[in-house]
Amino acid sequence: MFLSPFKLLKKRTLREELASCRVQLTNWEERLQQARTACDVWQREADEASRKTQQVESKFNETLSQYNALKQDYESLQGGPHIRSIIKVSELSKLSLSVLKNIHAQLRQDLEEIEKVLYRETASKCMVCEERNRTVTLNCNHFVLCDTCSSTQNECPYCQTPINLISNI
Known about the structure:
61% of the residues lie in helices and 4% in strands. The protein has three helices and two strands. A two-stranded antiparallel ribbon has the order 1-2. Keywords: Coiled coil, Metal-binding, Zinc, Zinc-finger. Residues 11-59 form a coiled coil.
């Protein structure tokens, strides 16, 4: 069978296009393989970064736990987070000046806290018995006695003014 020059030309053109498409397909397959390889590398790097992050977080939590345990130990050795105490007064002379100043400042701060608590606890209690709440206002306008103690007192325990008039609240 004899082909016309036009058909031969068309056949040749189609073969060239086919070859060109095969080359292009091969290029695309290579690019796809490169992209897959890059994705695999990125995935491995992401997995490694995630693993390292977990290790760092674990180490951080472990260190934080150790810190908290040491802090508790330190506070227990210092007498707790509130009131500090010195075991032996004879040990004072062995301490450095800066440590003594720190102890002095801490004791002063602790004493202020004790005074605040004492005030809060006694501010509402009768000045005589210190057990029952204050319920009576005296003629000097002091609110310092409970009902029971007001009957036994002749003068205000705060200002020593004679008691003439009592108001129960």
